[in-house]
Amino acid sequence: MLRSLMVALTATILASCPALADPVRFAVTDIEGLEALQQEFGGFQAALEAETGLDIELIPVSSRTAAVEALNAGQVELVLTGPAEYVVMKELSDLRIVVAWQRPDYFAQIAVLANGPIRKLDDLKGKTIAFGSVGSTSQHLGPAQALADQGVVYGKDYEPTIISRNVAAEALIRGDIAAVGLNFGHLNSIRKAFPDQAFAVLARGRDLPNDILVARKDIPEEVFTKIRDAFVEHGGDLMGAVLQGEDNQKFKGGTFLVDIKDSDYDYVRSMYRTIGVNTFSSFVE
């Protein structure tokens, strides 16, 4: 009789908290393929497991849209994404913010040739300005907003065009375009790639909102709390694990920010409006 009661009690306890036994699935919107995901986040996966006692599983997604679909279908619990992607994902799915991943020196710029004809913002009017990936926070939306903040209107005062940054740098050197919109790290890369050329920054935007880790709306509260507490209490160890990934060096010198609200991303929403996008129900392609 006593043994039967103990078995029943154990079964009841296990049934009441199945989420802790199930893996917590983690996806990243800008990394395709499981191998690449493991290379970049394998160390972080192990560190988060150690700090939370949870089973963390890396789940590759093929696109931003696929990440939203996976959240809504209950196929992932956590997604790390960029600020431009976040505002659309928030519109398409009921998300919970876990923590922001700070990127130091994360701001947009408008670069020109230092010895070229463009010396002030008014010189850009009627000219062509190249931007990077469509919808990118720091290569498209941010640079466009940096100009708009100073009264230079997207698609009216100048002609925007989308070109990859190395091709854009070559076009700038040839004089085919007047300026390039890009972030701080990308400009440093261009300077290394073209050491015989001098570039100058004509406009700089404010620091951009950070990448953000979001959770599915129905993630068990105990799981959510364990994960958030791990970032609060062991952020240094987790960031060290993140930095094992080559592409994750963009987070070097950064930290995890917990006191983050959806309204902190309203600046990104203003960027979308600047390029003529007034709804956030789909990703800009």
Automatic annotation (TrEMBL):
Pfam families with a match to the protein in the record: Phosphonate-bd
This protein's name: Phosphonate-binding protein
Alphabetical keyword list: Signal
Transmembrane segments: none
Signal peptide: 1-21
Keyword Signal among UniProt keywords: yes
